Every structure is written in structure tokens, then in C-alpha cells.
Amino acid sequence: MVDVVALGEPLIQFNSFTLGPLRFVNYFEKHIAGSELNFCIAVIRNHLSCGLIARVGNDEFGRNIIEYSRSQGVDVSQIKIDDSFTGIYFVQRGYPIPLKSELIYYRKGSAGSKLSPEDVNEDYVRTAKLVHSTGITLAISESAKDAVFKAFELAKMRSFDTNIRPKLWTPEKARETILKLLGKYDIEVLITDPDDTKILLGITDPDEAYRKYKELGVKTLLYKLGAKGAVVFKDNLKAFKEAYKVPVEDPTGAGDAMAGTFISLYLQGKDLEYALHHGIVASTLVVMVRGDNEMTPTTEDAERFLKEF
Ligand code: ADP
Ligand code: CKP
Ligand code: MG
């Protein structure tokens, strides 16, 4: 039994050692990532337990993902070994947009995309405080999407990060599928941003977005504004926190660190501002390095950051 369950595809990340187009990059640094795994690690750094429902390949990378996840405290009991290969991706940094990264996937047909409703252990999901997934899992395959719907059906409480990846599906398909999920299930915490909200609702204004998401059954909205910071809404409460100005190495994974940190503290009854500030701290540290989850701080380390920085 775990506090939080996440469903998604863990991936091997090859992060460019130098900036620029991949064809000129000679060295890559390996990291373990994937949005829902990053999220789980952030939940755990803030002292709740988290398990990942996923599939990895019967290969060295699959074993690497399981061992790394276990070493970070993730409950790996629900990660299945599949005969397909473990998905990988490369991170191209700083080109063509400075300070931004582009993800180049090699994941079609991967083990992770074979995730299916049969992988969703009913007791495991029912007993968790909260079940989390993202638009990435909805996009990678029909069976993975069905797994998310099954888990959300069984969940006591749900959080969802829209994470729309234009390389994985069309905006129309993303809108149709995500709105179907939001229409069907009440979401305790929705994590999203103006780009995704433009696709989903045709608007970007945070207040207007909260009004519309609320009509769809969203209780709390965590609205990320990239280098500007983030704003959170719950009922009549609204809190904004500006991002910190730090050197950016690779922003990949910042949103997941923020989401996992926020949810973990939210579930522990911390107030919205506390959870938001800790989420901002986690994302700030993550953008400063290559790798999506190594820098995600514990609650105590984030407190030190807030006091001393
Ligand atoms: P995602 O990684 O999901 O795309 P964002 O890019 O919105 O999410 O980033 C989430 C958080 O990471 C932001 O709210 C902010 O705190 C931090 N962040 C992102 N980009 C920067 C940046 N360039 N400088 C400082 N902080 C950043
Ligand atoms: O939205 P974020 O930058 O926080 O998400 C990053 C993750 O799962 C990254 O680990 C990558 O593997 C992915 O999102 C993805 O599939 O795009
Ligand atoms: Mg994101």
C-alpha cells in the first residue's frame, strides 16, 4: 500500500553535454526520467510513499530504470517487464531557442507504451490516497490511455498534469481525450499551463482558466507560467509566486518536480502557499542542471533554500 500511485512511461534520457543541434553533439549524459517517475520522486522527497504503474523492456535500460527507481524509494512492485524495448529520448539544449530544450523521442512501440488496464492492480490503486497521471500517458497508446481511465475510476482522489506533447498526438486528439477525462472524473489538482489551456479551452488567462476548469470538476488548479513562476487557485484562494532568476541548464522536468512536490505537501495538509513555494523551489533547482529529478529537494532542503537564498 502506498500513499500515491502514478501511471506512466519511465524513459532513459540522453542529455546533450553541449548546447546545439544534436548532429553536432558528441557526448550525451544518461539520466533516468519520464514525467510520472519524476513526479513520484518529488512526492517521496517530501515524505509520502509513491508507486509507479508502468512497463519497461527486458533489457539493460529496463533494469536500469527499475534499479534507479528503487534506489530513490519508488515502490517498483507494479513495474512489469515487457518483451518490447525500453523507450529512450535525447535532449537537445539551447537550440534553436536559447534556454529551452527539445525532446527527441525513440519510443514508438516501446514497452512503456504497452501499459494496459490489466497492469492496474485494483487494490493497489483503491487504497492509495491519490492517483496521478499525465497527457503523455493518454497519448502513447490506446491501452495506456485505457489504463489511466481504469485507475481514475478506482481512485479516491486524482491529480492530472495535461503535459500535451505535440510530437505524440495532434492538438485535436489531445483536446478530445483530455476533456473527456476531465469531464468524467473530478480532479483534486490539475496541473497545466497557458499553452495547454489554449489547446484545451482556447484561452490562456489564469482566472478565466480556473473558472472553466472548475466547471469541469477541478478543485485546485496549479497553473505554471514557466520563467515567470506559477499561480494556484482553490475556491476563493489564489496565490502567485514568481520564479527565481537562476542560470538555466535544462528546464526539462521542472514541471514534474513542482507537481510532485506540491501534491505531496497538499496531501499532508500544508497550506496552498507553502506547497506552491516548495514547488517553485523544486523546479528552480531542477532547471539548473541536466537530469529531471536528481536536484528535487526534500522538504527540509527546500526550507533551507527559502530561508537562505
Ligand atoms: P514544464 O516543465 O511542465 O513545462 P514550466 O516550464 O512551466 O513547466 O516550469 C515549471 C516551473 O519551473 C516554473 O513555474 C518555474 O518555477 C520553473 N522554471 C521554468 N523555467 C524557468 C526558468 N527559465 N527560470 C527559472 N525558473 C524556471
Ligand atoms: O513537463 P516536464 O518538463 O516536467 O516533463 C519532462 C518529462 O516524460 C521528461 O522526463 C520526458 O521523458 C517526458 O516528460 C516526456 O515524455 O516528454
Ligand atoms: Mg510539464
Automatic annotation (TrEMBL):
SUPFAM superfamilies per record: Ribokinase-like
GO molecular function: 2-dehydro-3-deoxygluconokinase activity; ATP binding
Pathway listed: Carbohydrate acid metabolism; 2-dehydro-3-deoxy-D-gluconate degradation; D-glyceraldehyde 3-phosphate and pyruvate from 2-dehydro-3-deoxy-D-gluconate: step 1/2
Keyword list, A-Z: ATP-binding, Carbohydrate metabolism, Kinase, Nucleotide-binding, Transferase
Domain Carbohydrate kinase PfkB: 3-298
Subunit structure: Homohexamer; trimer of dimers.
Family, per entry: Belongs to the carbohydrate kinase PfkB family.
Protein name: 2-keto-3-deoxygluconokinase
Species in which this protein is naturally found: Saccharolobus caldissimus
